[in-house]
Each structure stands twice: as C-alpha cells, then as structure tokens.
Amino acid sequence: MHTTVFPRMASRDFDWRMFSIRAKFSEKPNNGQSKGQAVRVLGIDPGLRNLGWGVIDVDGARLTHVANGICHSQDGDLAQRLLSLHTQLTEVLRAFAPDAAAVEHTFVNKDAVATLKLGQARGIALLVPAQAGLTVGEYAPNAVKKTVVGVGHAAKVQVDHMVRIHLPGVQISGPDAADALAVAICHAHHLQSAGRFEAALKRAVG
C-alpha cells in the first residue's frame, strides 16, 4: 500500500474542534486474498467554510466505506482559513493513506468574490494530495451525479441516497461529506473503466 510521510505536527497546532469525522476503522477487504488488494480512494468536495472528504476502498466491483468527514474553517483572515484547511486535510491523508484522490470542479456563480474564494479552497484540495505524491482526478459535478445517480442534474438528496446504496451502513457527516464520497465513487468507476485501476493497484500493493 502507498505510504505517505508528512512532517511531524505538534498537537497544539491542530484544532480538532474544527474537524468532524465519521470513520469505520477496518482492514482492507481480505476475501481470502492477501491484504492490500484494494485501492484506497479519497474524494474531496471543495469549500472554504466546509470542505467535505470521503475515503473508500475499491476491490474490483466492491466498494467499502472507510471514513468521511468535513474540514471546517471559521470566519476570519483568508490566509489563516486556507492554512487551517490545508492542515486538516493533511491530517486526513496522514490518517488514511489513500492511493488515489479526486476533487470536484467548482462552478462560477454571479458572486465573483465567492467564486474566487471557492477556487482558492479548491487549490488546497488539489495541493494536499499532490504533495503526498498522488495523481488527482477532477470531475464536474454533473459527471459525478451521472456516475453515482444516473442523472446529471440530480438533487443532493438523491446523491446522498445513492451513496448510501453504494456504501451500505455508511454514516455520513453531512451533505459535503456525501458529495465527497460521491466523488470517490465516481473516481473509482473511472479508474476501472479507463483501465487505470491496475496501475493504481500496483502502487497500492507496492
């Protein structure tokens, strides 16, 4: 399995009050085979106030929930908020050591300032897994919905429902985490359909 090494971070530098997580701590699926036959995928739904993330294990057609949560940044200086997201997301990668990552595209709305800030948060979402040596996939929201729900303009409640079907028994931290899990599921599907699953698996079992 791909192992990521990060610089040590003092506990006082990380504020767990800003960090919500639901996790199922388990070994990768064995199924009579050696451990590590699954590829671990991290999906990220960018946001400045709430950045959702979800981790799944992919073993052939089988998807297993590992963890999901939301990185929060409070009001205040933009630079410090971005730093907070970077720190929290780095901790996610350190805790779950994914083999592949994917980030949802942001969309442009009428509020140019809000769009710019969202783009900066998305930059953090792309940077952190890239720093860990991962190749990062990018998907438009409609592509994610089409893959997970079957409809490109599905509502959030439909996405949440289908994520729960794909990942039975999952407890989801909130809509942002549900979207992130959907991104992870979408990336898993495209890894397989594009024939890149074998390469990701080779890195995972290394």
From TrEMBL:
GO biological processes: DNA recombination; DNA repair; SOS response
Location relative to the cell: Cytoplasm
Substrates-to-products reaction catalysed: Endonucleolytic cleavage at a junction such as a reciprocal single-stranded crossover between two homologous DNA duplexes (Holliday junction)
Record's GO cellular component terms: cytoplasm; Holliday junction resolvase complex
Active site: D45, E104, D176
Residues that hold Mg(2+) 1 according to the record: D45, D176
Annotated Gene3D superfamilies: Ribonuclease H-like superfamily/Ribonuclease H
EC annotation from Swiss-Prot or TrEMBL: 3.1.21.10
Record carries keyword DNA repair: yes
Primary location recorded for the protein, binned into one broad class: cytoplasm
Domain of life: Bacteria
Segments crossing the lipid bilayer: none
CDD domains: RuvC
GO molecular function, one term: crossover junction DNA endonuclease activity
Residues reported in the UniProt entry to bind Mg(2+) 2: E104
HAMAP family: RuvC (MF_00034)
Function: The RuvA-RuvB-RuvC complex processes Holliday junction (HJ) DNA during genetic recombination and DNA repair. Endonuclease that resolves HJ intermediates. Cleaves cruciform DNA by making single-stranded nicks across the HJ at symmetrical positions within the homologous arms, yielding a 5'-phosphate and a 3'-hydroxyl group; requires a central core of homology in the junction. The consensus cleavage sequence is 5'-(A/T)TT(C/G)-3'. Cleavage occurs on the 3'-side of the TT dinucleotide at the point of strand exchange.
Family classification: Belongs to the RuvC family.
Protein name: Crossover junction endodeoxyribonuclease RuvC
Organism: Rhodobacter ferrooxidans
Name of encoding gene: ruvC
